[in-house]
Amino acid sequence: MSSPYPVQRLTHLQRSPEMSLRINFSFLQRFKDEARISKVRTRDGEKLLIRGSVVSSPQNLQFAETKMHKSEKTVRIGVLGASGYTGSEIVRLLANHPQFGITVMTADRKAGQSIGSVFPHLITQDLPNMVAIKDADFSRVDAVFCCLPHGTTQEIIRGLPKELKIVDLSADFRLRNIDEYEEWYGQPHKAPDLQKEAIYGLTEVSRDEIRDARLVANPGCYPTSIQLPLVPLIKANLIELRNIIIDAKSGVSGAGRGAKEANLYTEIAEGIHSYGITKHRHVPEIEQGLSDASHSIVTVSFTPHLMPMSRGMQSTIYVEMAPGKTIEDLYQQLRISYEDEEFVVLLEKGAVPHTRNVRGSNYCVMNVFPDRIPGRAIIISVIDNLVKGASGQALQNLNLMMGFPENMGLLYQPLFP
What is the model's pTM? Predict the structure, then answer.
């Protein structure tokens, strides 16, 4: 009777210099022996010894091989601020990345704790405990995701080794004009020299610059959902630069994990919470991107709202079309701009984007509709604020910076229902 197990595969593993498996071939259907994995990897003269122990069932042999592949990840990652939402989302996304492996995680207030104790949904991840930033060993790191609050990141990044590739998820390097940063964020910029080399990382718009960057300023969630539909329309001179009105709504995770009275369940549930009216800090970032696209100053009317949901973001954008232009012109421009893009999806005409259809994914889904007012159009753009609006786009950017396919580790499909 033929064995249901891959005997040839097992023989290959048995002969591999990287793995020795003591297997009783007379009991292929019920392995009892313990298999031990021992692998030495040399990287820049550094030897890493990785050991594991499994029971030699076919399932566990597959698990053993998976563990071996994990040990072969070539890029060592540091996650600064791993105890926040964007940090934990980086950890989740990297769990299935074939090349990026986490070697350092920091969280000053959670130092000494495991990621699973802070985020139980990540309890299966075999990762180092979190440490304070001052205790982090960056000699074992090739690239960093910086998920710290704005205002703290500039000095920390300035103190990191110069050879590290960095994607900063805070707002500290998004605004090129440091005077504008001080105006909107209420404090002087502490690393103006680094600001000069930072590349704004809206991937689909600036991928060529991102590839060659050392420091990338990852865009904010609202600016991502707004710029992706508007930039190609502005570049093609299809819409007027005046009277752009943006009504944007976000899940509560967009406000961060800190304990704030305004974010309590009773403050958020069963209602819509408008905030930052006329003074939200994403306004200058949005206007900077749209002004770059138009080569002139663009001012927008932007009002954000928190919705009683954990994650998701919708930007409803009202624009005036340029003279002689139609909805069909706008639709076709978006189609041409994004037909070859992995993560930007233009729906069929008339289909309405919904946040529930991008939850947990790196997709931006959009469409354009005629307004009842002649000459005006309505654009709807939806993303997951923690993925395409933060950690997913950050991973997309670091893939580019490290020379890997842009979609590596990001092909999670949306979670529904």
Answer: 0.83
